[in-house]
What does this fold into?
Amino acid sequence: MDRVHITDVTLRDGHQSLIATRMRTEDMLPICEQMDAIGFHSLEAWGGATFDACVRFLKEDPWERLHQLKAALPNTPLQMLLRGQNLLGYRHYADDVVRAFVERSVAGGIDIIRIFDAMNDARNLRTAIEATRQAGGHAQGTLCYTTGPVHSATQFVTLARELVDMGAQSIAIKDMAGLLTPTATRELVTELVDALDVPIHLHAHATSGLSELCHWQAIEAGCRHIETAISAFAGGTSHPPTESLVAALSGTGHDTGLDLVALQKIGLYFHEVRKKYQRFESEYTGVDTRVQVNQVPGGMISNLANQLRDQNALDRFDAVLEEIPRVREDLGYPPLVTPTSQIVGTQAVMNVLAGERYKTITNEVKQYLTGHYGRAPGPINRVIQRKAIGNAEAIDVRPADLLKPEMDHLTRDIGDLAQGPEDVLTFALFPEVGRSFLEQRRDGTLEPEPLHLPENTQAGCPAPVEFNVTFHGESYHIRVNGSGHHREDTRPMYVTIDGMPEEVLIETLDTIDTAGGGSGGAESPRTGKKSRRATRPGDVTTSMPGTIIDVLVAEGDTVEAGQPVLVLEAMKMESEIAAPIAGTVRAVNVAKGAAANPDDALIEIDSPDA
It folds into this structure.
């Protein structure tokens, strides 16, 4: 019998795809003994977005989760997803950080590391592959599957050969958006099996509704390792159901040998667990055949919807989906996977909302166009490149070659908050969020976001927890789920807006300006300035809401038109906001860390003629 081996992804990609990576460790551990007895090839249980979600939302130590899962699953190899030189963050890290992270991951219990690069640039995988082998782990090289005029099966086979030459011990086809068709699957797997002497794995999301057919064709073509999710966390933007594939292969020459009844009991457990996370369910996690045209992964779809809803611009959703392929073409047809999916998606949103393509260009797009993410798969639009970076030269070396070692200064920067190298690495990946997490751990104030509505309200003042709000003729259903600890002068409130989970930061206003003038506004304790609507030519505004990352000018400074004056973070991407006119800075109404809303006068500039 030519057995097919299954990797179950429920503990990582299943809940990442369907409930925004919110499953807590406390809901994983009770079922681990039963999962460990099944005989899976491996369990994907760490990496991807789980690290970020643990620190940012669940207030769990991701390293402790790994240790607990390893102890609870002693007989089953654990697998993680790693973004090559990006690790689990959104930028390239120096080689010493990559080596340290890989070494700690393997020491903590990871057996198999799936290593990918969003650009399919093999240079960005070498250090992680070498570090995995050196640490005693299994290094799996990854092909980020995509389609377009510069992509072909032959190209993917060439990349696979290069990764095996680097030391990859197996090759995974990562179809993150569900773009594979049965015919394309058979062609690619056949060529890979013929060309390589290492196992081929298929990781294909179910977004387009074709994944079961693709898995069958892959098996027929010689693939012996497939990936599924327990039925309660399968389908849509997740993966095909484990139980269904086991049943389909039962009694054939490719029988998995797994116990279907035991799997069904695990499925019933997760069916009940999923109910606990109802507020994180999204209407954008079902089958969506549009992915075959726009190539937008499911998680990116729901993120885009949230961003547009925040700006009362959900009616522009289709326009953004149409713009994404155009931006992707401008950037040389990169696969849409973290972080390139965020880079392309955010720029598309800005293009649509501004009413002018590339009026504002994110810093990440500029970094991309200078080669700091790696080599683009295809030709870049030179007009857009010139607009973004002017005459700056793009690098042609491996981006990490330009980075100096980081571990020593990161260790100094985080200081006594770090109890070991794992904490330093948490800080390295997410400096602001990581530091806050470590501070809260030290102070004993870690508190995860709430799962349910609060059971009581203030005595004598029962504030509503569910209501409708109308803005500019658009109605939204709001449901308040709870609140978190005060953060300086803000408190996080957890709500759902038309069924989508959101975190809203409520900022305390010390005084309210009611002295006329037509603009109203309030004095912010962050800045001591009164916010007002932008009405003058010299008012600096943003086209989308976000957080101020840096203020580049001060009152009294002289600026030129087009000079960057603010850095804004939105959708995990940064953008420089430029001065609309030349002149003198009269007022700076925001500070680092403040929220920025469209049409607010963030900075006021007087022209020389004023």
